[in-house]
Amino acid sequence: MTVTNKIPHKGKELVKYKGIELIDKLGHDVIADVVASILCGGNVRAMTEKLTQRRIAMSNASMLMTFVETHHSGVELDDLYIVIEKELMSKKKLSIAEKNFLYWIIGLTGKSIQNVLRGDKGNLKSYIEELTESLELNKTLIIEDFGNLEGNFVIGDRNLPVNWKTFLQLSLALGTQNLALRGAEKSMYGKFFEKLILGTLLTILGFKFIKNTDTSISSMVFWLSERGSKRESDATLLLKPGKGVRFDIGFIGVGNTEISLDKVSRFEREMERGTEKHFMKTIVLIDRIGEGSRIVEMAKAIDGSIVQMSMNYWVYEIATILKESIGFEHHILSLSKEKSIELIYNSLKEINLKTFIDGIYEEDIDNEIE
Q1: Mind listing the pLDDT tens digit for each residue in 163-217?
Q2: Number of domains present in the structure of the chain
Q3: Residues 45 and 139 reside in one and the same domain
């Protein structure tokens, strides 16, 4: 008997996303509206929360169906963990989605496998034994405090008898799954929209998107995620030979902005590309600056600039910084700040967002097990 063949196909699909699939699933116009809102001061976390809730809701339903179908196939839930242990330890090839689901049921994510099992599947048997003992003890304590639980989940022509042990097993699986998916969503949406925001921003300002390996052109170009000798920059632009800017972006809380800038302070002031040497400025994009933050002073110390994306006209501010620091000219600076918002929305109608994602972005789920 197995559990993996009882996992709904929909549940397996939801385990892992690729960034480019989001555009196809949700539609280019939907994603473009989110990008435009962020470029005008919107909060990416607030905008993606509904997407996260939708994914978690469908995954939770898939987990419940896995329990229901497993019970219907004749597997006693008292033996559920033993069946899962055998599947995980067998030589049978399991997909990443199947392995994740099995680990979620027994309360493990990728990180907890490294911490609790120390990355060794040989410790799985003792973990299962301790988990089973813990559930039995907790069930006893709960019955003493709250009394017996009796019920029945009925889905279509399937049913799942529910007692405290079943409830605890299902709660553990759902809680672990939600933790893993929320972590994955936070990472995926952050990196996904970082590329879209930077790519769209620099395209609106008239720079051409190229691969970082293309050294044939060094004027009015940019590329994403370039790795230098010290650390990775999220975007790099060249105004002309000898003058450029590195960007670091992060949708992070106000308490972590100093950490972001500390990393950026390791950027080199000079960059060699092909046979040319470029003098680079640093611009850090963060959600907002917390009260009493030292980040503005820290930025000045590295001859950098900090821009808050929570401000409505931060794209206009970027253009102003580029003008003052490297002599950049763009007609957005001849507009009022209010008109600059209109320019952003109109420009997005002409930009293919997949250009910044296809072939260069794929975010693996936090707890993916190889």
Answers
A1: 999 999 999 999 999 999 988 877 777 778 889 999 999 999 999 999 888 888 9
A2: 2
A3: yes
